[in-house]
Amino acid sequence: MSIDLRKKAEEKLIDLSKKATITLSKKGLNGVTARVGLALDISASMTNLYKRGTVQAVTEQTLALGMNFDDNQAADVFLFGVKDYTVGEIQKENFYEFVNREIYSKYELEGGTRYSGVIRRIVEYYFPGAFTTKKSGFLGLKSERIVDTSKYQHQEPVYIIFITDGNCQDYAETKDIITLASRLGVFFQFVGVGDEQFTFLKELDDMEGRFIDNANFFQVRDMGTLSDGELYDSLLAEFPAWLKEARSKSIIK
């Protein structure tokens, strides 16, 4: 490992944190505490983004937000392809070459993209036991998934950055899980990377029937053309409004 390269990476991370602070100030988010998570697409079409270092850059940009938001200055990392996984925390002590070491060398890229599994995994990670099943109908033969919010109305909000380069294969399940999660204190910021149309994510952004609008979407065709400040402005475009509404509806403290 080159000590000089690591030192430069550490200096860059400090600079990213300062840029994140500027955006947080502009958005009126100074002093806000939130648990930060990052969901990364590991479908095979993401290969070049991993090899070029784009995904590593995104993890560092997310960590810089976590350094300002999160109580332990870290971010939780989740993966999704056909299946879904919990990787662990990215933090100042382990961020250098995190993606190559903890993701690309340990997980095979998969031949499909499903969102619902990782969204359910994320919700259950931060709100264990919130999803329950209610029996109904004759002899209780029907079952309905519901959300138990009683334990989770006064905790810190959760902010998730969700990176993907393509639409998913499980539209209905994803709509259902996002709708259920709208009663909990979690906000999903979806980011589409590349030239895909992202029809479903645009639809999800404006989907009706939710208790609160808990998701936003924007597209970046080439992450390398976006400055750090521009990225943070986009990532935090709707989060302040969600915080205000979530507090007014007693979803978060």
TrEMBL record:
InterPro entries assigned: vWA_TerF_C (IPR019303), VWF_A (IPR002035), vWFA_dom_sf (IPR036465)
> Which Pfam families does this entry report, sorted A to Z?
vWA-TerF-like
Transmembrane residues, as ranges?
none
Signal sequence coordinates: none
Q: Identify the SMART domains for this entry.
A: VWA
Q: Which domain of life is it from?
A: Bacteria
Q: Where is the VWFA domain?
A: 35-235
The protein, known as = VWFA domain-containing protein
Query: Which organism is the protein's source?
Result: Paenibacillus shirakamiensis
